[in-house]
Amino acid sequence: VLRDPEFTQQVKKRVSIVEFYADWCGHCKEFSKVYKEVSKVLKGVIPVIAVNDESLAQKYSVKGYPTVK
Fold first, then answer.
1. Catalytic residues, which ones?
2. Interval 19-39: pLDDT, tens
Protein backbone atom coordinates (compact mmCIF):
# COMPACT_ATOMS: atom_id res chain seq x y z
CA VAL A 1 0.00 0.00 0.00
CA LEU A 2 1.49 3.31 -1.09
CA ARG A 3 0.65 6.88 -0.19
CA ASP A 4 1.91 10.16 -1.63
CA PRO A 5 4.64 11.11 -2.39
CA GLU A 6 5.86 7.50 -2.87
CA PHE A 7 2.82 6.67 -4.99
CA THR A 8 3.35 9.57 -7.39
CA GLN A 9 7.05 8.76 -7.73
CA GLN A 10 6.29 5.10 -8.48
CA VAL A 11 3.67 5.73 -11.18
CA LYS A 12 5.86 8.38 -12.83
CA LYS A 13 8.71 5.87 -13.13
CA ARG A 14 6.84 3.23 -15.10
CA VAL A 15 3.47 1.89 -16.12
CA SER A 16 1.75 0.31 -13.12
CA ILE A 17 -1.51 -1.41 -12.26
CA VAL A 18 -3.23 0.43 -9.41
CA GLU A 19 -6.18 -0.72 -7.32
CA PHE A 20 -7.99 1.96 -5.35
CA TYR A 21 -9.89 0.42 -2.44
CA ALA A 22 -11.53 1.21 0.90
CA ASP A 23 -11.44 -0.88 4.07
CA TRP A 24 -15.23 -0.70 4.47
CA CYS A 25 -15.89 -1.98 0.92
CA GLY A 26 -17.14 -5.58 0.73
CA HIS A 27 -16.42 -5.85 -3.00
CA CYS A 28 -12.86 -4.68 -2.30
CA LYS A 29 -12.37 -7.46 0.25
CA GLU A 30 -13.50 -10.08 -2.28
CA PHE A 31 -11.43 -8.54 -5.09
CA SER A 32 -8.31 -8.45 -2.91
CA LYS A 33 -7.93 -12.23 -3.32
CA VAL A 34 -7.77 -11.90 -7.10
CA TYR A 35 -5.58 -8.81 -6.91
CA LYS A 36 -3.03 -10.63 -4.72
CA GLU A 37 -2.82 -13.43 -7.28
CA VAL A 38 -2.35 -10.93 -10.11
CA SER A 39 0.40 -9.28 -8.08
CA LYS A 40 2.21 -12.61 -7.68
CA VAL A 41 1.95 -13.43 -11.40
CA LEU A 42 3.20 -9.99 -12.47
CA LYS A 43 5.94 -9.66 -9.85
CA GLY A 44 9.07 -8.36 -11.54
CA VAL A 45 7.15 -7.56 -14.74
CA ILE A 46 4.95 -4.62 -13.80
CA PRO A 47 4.31 -2.93 -10.45
CA VAL A 48 0.94 -3.80 -8.91
CA ILE A 49 -0.03 -1.19 -6.32
CA ALA A 50 -2.89 -1.02 -3.82
CA VAL A 51 -4.04 2.42 -2.68
CA ASN A 52 -6.28 3.20 0.28
CA ASP A 53 -6.10 6.99 0.26
CA GLU A 54 -9.12 9.24 -0.29
CA SER A 55 -7.06 12.20 -1.55
CA LEU A 56 -5.32 10.05 -4.17
CA ALA A 57 -8.65 8.52 -5.17
CA GLN A 58 -10.05 12.01 -5.76
CA LYS A 59 -6.91 13.08 -7.64
CA TYR A 60 -7.35 10.13 -10.04
CA SER A 61 -11.13 10.58 -10.40
CA VAL A 62 -12.11 7.36 -8.64
CA LYS A 63 -15.91 7.22 -8.50
CA GLY A 64 -16.37 3.86 -6.74
CA TYR A 65 -14.50 1.02 -5.10
CA PRO A 66 -12.70 -1.07 -6.06
CA THR A 67 -11.26 0.72 -9.09
CA VAL A 68 -8.30 -0.50 -11.14
CA LYS A 69 -6.39 1.94 -13.30
1. 25-28
2. 999 999 999 999 999 999 999
